[in-house]
Amino acid sequence: MGRHDDLWSLFYMLVEFAVGQLPWRKIKDKEQVGQIKERYDHRMLLKHMPSEFNIFLDHVQALDYYTKPDYQLLMSVFENSMKERIITENEPFDWEKGGSDATLSTSASTQPQHNTRPTAAIVGKTHIVALTAKKPETSFGS
């Protein structure tokens, strides 16, 4: 498995986030899933995705095991999609935004999540940040 496989996994994950499921979701046999993926028209997966993701798909389809992905191009897909929708990198997730719907709002007593940074979930833009956390102290048997 190479870098292109990781990008295929990212592509499928983003589609699943946006659409809710992938066409082969209920198939248990890995070989059968692989055959479906090889024959499937991946453009159909982009029906509910931002149009910029056609660039992502085109690039990933052109890669093989030895080809280095153009990560700058792929990042530009996320950045352009965010710009098109006027989404900032630090915009809160939908469930972090205030609203009249009681199921979406959080109460004042809810503790904030630590070591997390909101990102634009609608387009799946993520940053990997090294975090240091103090190990919680525990006492056993005392």
From TrEMBL:
SUPFAM superfamilies: Protein kinase-like (PK-like) (SSF56112). Residues 102-118 have a biased composition (Polar residues). Coiled coil: none annotated. Keywords: Kinase, Signal, Transferase. Residues 1-20 form the signal peptide. GO terms for molecular function: kinase activity. This is Tau-tubulin kinase 1. The lineage of its organism: Eukaryota, Metazoa, Chordata, Craniata, Vertebrata.
